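Support request, please re-run this one:
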Amino acid sequence: MPAKKSASRKSAAPPERATVAQLISFAAEQFAIAGLWFGHGTDNAVDEAAELVFFAAGLRHDDADEVYGQVLKAPQRAKALELIERRIRERVPAAYLTHRMWFAGHEFYVDERVLVPRSPIAELIEAQFRPWIDPGKVQRILDIGTGSGCIAIAAALAFPEAKVDAADLSPDALAVTRKNIERHAVEQRVRAVQSDVFDGLKGERYDVIVSNPPYVGDEELAGLPEEYRREPVMGLHGGRDGLDIVHRILDQAAAHLQPHGILIVEVGNSEEALVEALPRMPFTWLDFERGGGGVFLLTRDQLVAKS
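Re-run finished. Output below.
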């Protein structure tokens, strides 16, 4: 069966003078035939195809309705078909082909050194962490496991007066963080710090500590689709049950929070394992309008009480 699918895909081609809409439809059909997985900023073949075609053609998604009927020029068409073919052949997330992804309304550079931004924490940043903390009291923010720096930089843009530390253990990830810091012109307020959780942040205190750490356990990691295997395993794997880094954050966060401070951590599918491991911890599990879950919030007082 796989050989037949491959032969069918290779023989297929869009119309010679394909419009944007036709090329998107063609790509989505090929993605479906190839059995691709979506979950890195899009959740379906059509949106994934649209991102690659729009990128190849130099078009803006905001102009979609006006350009769907546009016929692509030969170089645009060739670039789009190349990206479509690579998406199928290499099973890489589209963001690694375009080197861009949006988070909290801002565009970030991404490559294979970092995870593709997709955390529901974006909604919390857009709301300035209301109602969980008074935005006027937020002067310092820490992002643990910053990767591309998207959470740290989006937080800095949401809090123009705040200083933000973007911490990661990976030098490769921090190189991408610094690229995005410069891109968004927040060098004066966002600091990229190499740190293994809190080890490089001795004596520092924050109003908000936020983290999307590695939280995938052994069993889940083994079953991930190929697209996730293109991401750095260091950013995904959190030990046997996925909670190695999460426990370290919980153990040390109180010492790095201001009295009114809050801790927000994404644990994804490891939520049940965390609740079973710490049944008396008063986690507040947050809801999101745009979907997603597995994100908890604790106050410093709650952390101190359970320490």
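The first helix runs from residue 2 to 11. The chain has two domains: 2-97, 101-305.
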